[in-house]
Amino acid sequence: MNFVFYLHDEKSSENIERRLLWFKKHYNLVSSQEIYSYYYEGLKLYNSCHLTIDDGWLSTYQVVFPLLKKHKIPVTIFVSPEVCLNKLNFWYYDIKKFSENDFKQYLVCEGYFKEGVEKYPLELILKELEIDEVYSCIRKYAFIHHIDLSERGFVNIEEVKEMSDSGLVEIGAHTMIHPILAAENKKRSEYEIVQSVNNLATLIDKPVTSFAYPNGLWMDDFGQREMEFANKAGIKLAYSVQPGVLNIKKSPLAIPRVGQEKRLKLGRLGLILPSLHNQRKPRNLIKSLKL
Q1: In the CATH hierarchy, which top-level class contains the domain 3-87+153-259?
Q2: Residue ranges of the domains in the chain?
Q3: pLDDT at 276 over 70
Q4: For the chain, N or C: smaller number of CB within 10 Å?
Q5: Per-residue b or e along 180-219, where b marks 16 or more CB atoms closer than 10 Å to that residue's CB
């Protein structure tokens, strides 16, 4: 079976090295170029895995990248040029400094949601707002409560270039500032995809042909509209987080990925089983409480 696996923030060097070596022992770890050749050039893959890392966490550079070089493991890392260039943090990083219950009350008091939304996880609540609303709420709340948001949690452009130049790391785009694309209007969705690809290519002085949809759930977070925008931007490989195996008959602009090793223990069945963590129902209920 051939598949793509995704990682996020990896703080423990020992833990991630153990995981990387486990992958290297059990699978042929292939590069982004080989995934491209599989879809476009007829390359046959066997028992192959391509590792990807979303968001460009600072730990990706400080903890994971040295191990990639040590063990010569190819990966794709998805980053947002606006965040890298201006040393910003994604919204889901900043809200970790907030009192979750208090911030939920703030969203109700400010007229974004009706009462009752407080029982849902904060991250899911914010996924039902447009991205400009999310950052506006965060900045206002931080200002009112004197919360410092200056700590950097993600890679800067110098670190991105170093990883890109290593020969092991493909740099892919991940929108400008990580909106839920399906929650945005057509113009903003297109901008987030196309501009992130163009800006990132300029910053690293290389073509950018890979993309990961933020959050990555089909229909909840992206759809055919976003796939068309990715194609317009010159993207050849675009990744979701829908579970599944690589399939030459399916679109390379909605490649499935898995993020749990326990799925791999079940073999092919584990890779194609639907996720037990279904966001659709709670997010639809949250949406019904939006003002």
Answers
A1: alpha beta
A2: 3-87+153-259, 90-151+274-291
A3: no
A4: C
A5: bbbbbeeebbbbbbbbbbebbbebbeeebbbbbbbbbbbe
